Amino acid sequence: MSKKKIISWVLVFCIFGAFAQSDYYVSGGGNDLNTGSASSPFKTISKALNSIGTSGGNCFIMEGTYHESVIIDGKNNITIQPYNNDVVILDGTIEISTTWTQSPENNSIYETTLNQDIWQLFIDDEQQVMARWPNAQFIDESIYNLDFWAKSDVTLDSNGTMNDISSPENLASSGINAEGALAIANVGSWKTWVVPITSHTSGSSVFNYEPAPTYLDKHHYYYLEGKIDLLDTQNEWFYNANTKKLSVWGDPTEKDIKGKVQTYVFTMNNCSNITFKNLNFFATTMTSTSSNNITVNNCLFSYPSCSKRMLGVTSHPLTTELSNGQSNGNNNQPANYKFFQCLFEHTDGEAFVLHGPNNVIEDCYFHHIDYSCGSLRYLQNSIINRGRNCTFKNNTVHTASASSVLSLGDAPIISYNDISNNGMLQDDGALVQLPGQSSVPGSEIHHNWIHDSVKYGIRYDAPVLNPELAGTDGLIHHNVLWNLPKGMMIKGDVHEIYNNTCFDINGVDIIILDEDYPDPPGGSSNTLTILRNNLAGKISGHRQNPQTPPGIEDNNVFSATNDSFNSSALLTDPENKNFTPKSSALELIDEGVVIEGITDGYLGSAPDIGAYEIGDSWTAGATWTPNFYPWSFSNVQTRSGFVINPSFEDGSAAAMARNVAIDNWTLIGNNAADEGVSAGIQTSDVHTGDGSNALQVTNVASVGEWNIKINSTTYQFDGNNTDPIEVIVSFWAKTSDVDPGSHNSNGDLKLIVNDAVSGLDRTSRALLTPDTWVYISKTFNLFPAAENYSLSLSIQFGRLEGVTQIDGITSLITGGATLAIQDIEINDSSFYLYPNPAMNVLYYRAEGVKNIEVYDLLGKKLISEKAVGSVSTSALPEGSYIIKLIWEKGSVSTKKFIKK
User: Which of 68, 579, 612, 657 has the most beta carbons within 10 angstroms of its beta carbon?
Assistant: First the structure.
């Protein structure tokens, strides 16, 4: 081949590559046979991702709720994000709309039969409690309180036998036969196990269970699940996987009910450089294997994980988990996972588990992490990173139930976090814990607020019988700890503990533990540890009693006796988190020692003692206010035809996938009879969004532009009305199989608005692009006389052959005595509606709303009431409506919603 030809081929290849499509678009109203462009989007995320080539690209998802299991295999350099500022919800539930009947055994229990298993239940957006004893609730957070667990006698128990000593109600008096149930049993101190109960007799306080993997004679607690006999109070539910019967306490009729059927919406394998942005995960999450460089930015994970205990599964819940393919995580294989400004809330199980080095969790918010702690993995912590050099920065963590909150691998950097109210449901533990030899060296814990919990604040730990296996060379500085049973527990040696502030600690604030090492004989801990510039109530070398701490201790302010020093009295305003020294606190100001890299930038002649210098203003925790569930979005775009129904296809269950409003439209004529060509219209309760089951006109003959009409109901306006009327007709259309020899192969639609009073037609044409869904919206202005009149709308097909599909027809008539055009902003972004479509109740989340009004699409006012955060839609027929919010400041906002 000549050199010139080679160059030509290279040039052709480069030009082709330069123009190859790398951006793909997804809409629930799209079609996987489309091109994937913004005007011709795919229907599924899977199709878009599979279409992206080896060089990478972008997947833009248009607004809506999606239920899809997406496998991403061998992909690189991809970003998955909403289109523009659209709100995209990834939903792992199905809607439950089957008929409910009262149980013949108990008229407070209602039953229905499902066609697939669920393992989590929501009613009107509230998570329901798996039927249990003793009872506890999410709504009052008693489910996070150990007082609502049963208790057993550790002096009589053994691994496999429990002796209940609960009070005031106990197992014997409850009348429950626990045989066949599951016990969520905290019998391993910092470990809790889900164990089947093998034998029990009603009226007995003793039952037998399958032995737990670990067992300690220390503070045994448990509760029961897994039998319908336990269903006895509001907000509880039970599901029998054998009969597929779902049972709830109380009448659920007319309520919005959803069940979890999915664990992961995204499963990645052998991927790199994958980025997720601004996505909202409900009752589903993501996982990866053998993958690296995954970034998750600004995503909400609400109820992302849940145990399958309701299905009889006793193993750990499947949670958010990213892995580089190494089971240990402490290796040189790349991971580089990053979560930035993400919300994790309401989990059953850990918030997440990350495997591999160099991961970053920054500016995230975690709350209500795990309410059972059942059969968790590893050391059973709330947030787990199994790899070196993890950065955990500017995060807020509260109400996490496992014994220890953080398990971040070896040499983590933990800084500027606000951690509180954790460790409620297991024994032992600490909020920040580094468990042994490998985890401590190279670690740094600094500038954190750690407070208001039932566990240690910070702990360097070691195996119970091997204190010599504790870590060394840890650095802890500039932390504030308060309202804890004990502040710090420091085991090991060669640590540096500088400039920390502790107050209102029930026990010893800082324990620099002095304990003998059995190996080597004569050795002991913390002989080389440095303790300097700290403010505390008590500092000791003993867990409880006064004792001079080992190592080097100087320039600290504390009490060495049983009486705690009142350290909070030296702080400016600790109740409002101003932890700077008072100007009168001469014990602290300029009384510290200069420590290179630690006290840099101090004011005055020397550093101050404690975590704050006078004038300091650093804060800890997430820097943003999360959008907690139920979510309230301020940037919702209501794109006609591309608003996704929360009901969707799951397996063989077909449901509406597009915001289709075809109410009041009928076929009224076919003037092609002379040609003998059939034409018809199909309407169905099932809409796939691709037009195949939507409003569809077939076999239209090319005999002239009057051959077929789709006509709306006649609209009647009462009363005198001299104001102009504006009519907006919008829909999606696609023509296919067009005969190239037809008079107009592009397809020709003629929209007509007829004013019955004047007899005038206003017309407008719209051209179609073959085999492409095109959005059409036309506005017509009418000038009515001062009398009653009627109005009809029609769409006419001219000179078309093949199949023409129409989907998502909406009409809006404004002006006169109806909802005025200046009041309508269908894309209003000032508030969010949910659920949309609604069944019986529509919620709106907006502060400062005075009144609300609901209109039909003709502008007729149907509801007017004071704003209370929700409106009953049970009396509305199925169809499309407009809700109008009147704000206290006088402005109005409007948005369209669907009533199912």
Answer: 657
